[in-house]
Design goal:
Blueprint: E1 6-12, E2 24-25, H1 27-31, H2 33-41, H3 49-66, E3 70-76, E4 95-96, H4 99-108, E5 113-118, H5 126-135, E6 140-143, H6 145-148, H7 158-166, E7 171-173, H8 195-199, E8 204-206, H9 221-230, E9 234-237, H10 247-253, E10 263-264, H11 284-292, H12 296-306, H13 314-321
Bound molecules: zinc ion (ZN).
């Protein structure tokens, strides 16, 4: 992979609510170990949201600018939970990163960021929100069905998927177990539920290459191969695949070069990128390069290259879909 041309399609935007960013975090989430770890790692103070949000962005920009391979990041929003009538259910929502905050941040850094808005198809204005975000320049739509408590296979979302197809907005969906969601319906993370979106013609990107995320066995890998065979509009990102709960999928996929053209680069920033999947599987020189590479974007490239896991970039998809915007 030559030059600084890659797009990372899976970077989390984190933000504490301030008076006008439209974000929300529940008291339960504020107390959770995961959230406290994030605050500690980035030395963020929850009592001063504006400074904390600024610092999170500055840290991300610094690491991105320092990367030798990655040019741009898709910063992801996080929609909430919606009730039967399509109204926001704040009591069930753990956190919400608003599309306005995502779009505004991406607009402020056009050379670094692309907007990965989040739209729960259960919201009553889901189709209008797709149009609004597409008009505002969004690059993709991200969802996390287990957290957002919707079933991607629900046929009442057909119009939503058709609108995504029509506006050429890829649909990036979390797949597998989600650790931050104890007690929620984890079966909503089954990638087979993405078939409806594929049938309606939307470009689907399954996050974490369909890995299950529980270390046991990769129960979704048959689905991955079936989709790759049957749908030209199916892709998967390689984010988080170096983590202990997902690296079996990395080791599986490196044996299947025929599907590498379906893989898109991503990290799952701010999560760590680890090198131990490569131990004993690459030469010492390659391993020591991975260990020396502290930049998470570059380490993800080094580990995947070292293990011969081929991948493309979201940019390759956007070239086809955004041709209309280039004069
Ligand atoms: Zn993620």
């Amino acid at each position: 992979m030559a030059g600084k041309t890659l797009i990372d399609c899976h970077v989390h935007l984190a933000a504490l609510p301030d008076d006008n960013n439209g974000c929300y975090i529940s008291p339960k989430m504020l107390r959770s170990p995961l959230f406290r770890f994030l605050l500690w790692k980035h030395q963020l103070s929850p009592s001063n949201p504006r400074d904390a949000n600024r610092k999170y962005l500055d840290d991300l920009l610094t690491e991105l600018h320092a990367s030798r391979h990655v040019q741009k990041a898709v910063i992801l929003g996080m929609d909430g939970v919606y009730d039967q009538n399509g109204r926001l259910n704040q009591a069930e929502t753990d956190f919400l990163i608003s599309n306005d905050y995502v779009l505004k941040t991406a607009r402020a850094y056009p050379n670094e960021f692309l907007a990965g808005v989040s739209i729960n198809p259960q919201r009553r204005d889901a189709v209008e929100e797709v149009h609004r975000c597409a008009d505002a320049g969004a690059a993709l739509v991200k969802v996390l069905p287990n957290a957002q408590q919707f079933d991607p296979a629900d046929t009442s979302y057909r119009a939503f998927y058709r609108t995504l197809a029509e506006r050429k907005l890829p649909f990036l969906s979390h797949v597998g177990y989600e650790f931050s969601l104890i007690g929620k319906d984890q079966s909503l993370g089954d990638p087979d539920r993405l078939r409806l979106a594929l049938d309606e013609g939307a470009t689907v990107i399954a996050a974490h290459a369909c890995s299950y995320g529980l270390m046991l066995f990769e129960k979704f890998s048959p689905t991955f191969h079936t989709f790759a065979r049957n749908y030209h509009n199916f892709y998967a990102d390689i984010s988080a695949l170096t983590l202990p709960n997902r690296f079996r999928m990395l080791l599986h996929l490196r044996q299947h070069p025929e599907v590498h053209e379906r893989l898109l680069f991503g990290t799952d920033y701010p999560l760590s990128v680890l090198h131990f999947a490569a131990w004993g599987r690459v030469g010492f020189g390659t391993l020591s390069t991975m260990i020396r590479t502290k930049n998470r974007f570059d380490r993800q490239v080094e580990v995947c290259n070292g293990l011969k896991l081929g991948f493309g970039s979201l940019g390759d998809l956007l070239v086809h879909s955004t041709a209309k915007t280039t004069p």
